[in-house]
TrEMBL record:
The keyword Glycoprotein does not apply. This is Stage II sporulation protein M. Keywords: Membrane, Transmembrane, Transmembrane helix. Pfam families: SpoIIM. The chain crosses the membrane at residues 95-114, 154-171, 178-199, 219-242, 254-272, 284-306.
Length: 312
């Protein structure tokens, strides 16, 4: 192919690459491959021509763009946890409070219902679990359920189940937040009746020191997942100045980031429930784990976002 024909054939493509840069990694890579093919052809047939020098410079420019994009991608993980997620939570604190209030009210409903109806606990927790726990209490090990089963298998099952609960709370927000509220309420009622079951038998403190080793992170994460569901639900109910579809897309993206951000919390909770809760810990050690877990949740999801916003 003559040099003039080669230039005429590819001028529009080169001009688009030069004048309309992209930051999309896939498109950037595709463009770079095409450009290096053209450069290789030019070096073979027009080694001393101006077009070869031009393509060499353009390829070098794109190569720098690729390297910068890779550096940004490597730092993206840190940026997400250090800045993006906390900033998102700063703007979601109102919905986080709503989620917490719904869950707390549900816990009180569960406690009061269990106190006034002897069959309520069996209705919520199931006969199998109640009978097993009563048998464990008779044996002198009321929380023996946490000491049974293979630890690694238990860890995987618990972690995956908790992640699925969070994702369901997020997805159910599509029903204008109603589905998320129902899920929060059900889990709150379950927790309230569960704790009354032990209180009624004089085992409340023992159950708290045992269960909340992992429950502090687990229950907090469920409440935060409720915030993710309310985020997507409110984007449908209150689109503001956006179209409802645009608002929904924004809310879905924000809610999904919140739900994904909870995965490490659920992994930590699953580890504690599988490997630590079963241990015969001193009350001081149990209390320390519970307080450290609560302090982390309050700091990362409430205090740090506020501090970050003030600095910003």
């Amino acid at each position: 192919m003559r040099e003039a024909a080669f230039i005429k054939k590819n001028t529009d493509k080169w001009r688009d690459i030069e004048l309309n840069p992209t930051r999309d990694p896939d498109e950037l890579t595709e463009r770079f491959v095409e450009l290096t093919d053209d450069l290789s052809y030019a070096r073979t047939f027009y080694p001393h021509a101006q077009v070869t020098k031009y393509l060499n410079g353009l390829a070098a420019q794109m190569h720098r763009g690729l390297m910068q994009n890779k550096r940004e991608e490597r730092g993206r993980f840190i940026t997400f946890w250090k800045y993006e997620l906390p900033t998102l939570f700063y703007h979601s604190h109102r919905l986080l409070l709503v989620s917490f209030i719904v869950f707390l009210v549900a816990c009180l409903v569960g406690w009061v219902s269990a106190a006034n109806d002897p069959t309520f606990v069996r209705l919520i927790l199931g006969d199998g679990y109640v009978n097993m726990t009563l048998e464990n209490i008779r044996k002198g090990d009321p929380l023996g359920v946490y000491g049974s089963g293979d630890q690694s298998t238990m860890f995987l099952q618990i972690t995956l189940n908790n992640i699925m609960v969070a994702l369901r709370a997020f997805v159910m927000g599509i029903a204008a937040s109603f589905g998320t509220v129902v899920m929060l309420f059900y889990n709150g009622v379950m927790l309230g009746s569960f704790q009354y079951f032990f209180y009624e038998r004089g085992l409340l403190l023992e159950s708290v020191l045992k269960i909340w080793i992992h429950g502090t992170l687990e229950i907090s994460a469920i409440v935060i997942a409720g915030c993710a569901g309310l985020t997507i639900g409110n984007s449908i109910l209150f689109p503001g100045t956006y179209s409802r579809l645009t608002s929904f897309k924004r809310g879905a993206k924000q809610g999904l980031k919140i739900a994904v951000g909870l995965i490490p919390v659920f992994i930590a909770a699953g580890f504690l429930e599988s490997f630590v809760t079963r241990l015969p810990l001193h009350p001081a050690a149990s209390s320390a784990i519970i307080l450290i877990s609560a302090a982390f949740i309050i700091w990362y999801f409430i205090i740090y976002p506020i501090q970050l916003n003030r600095r910003g």
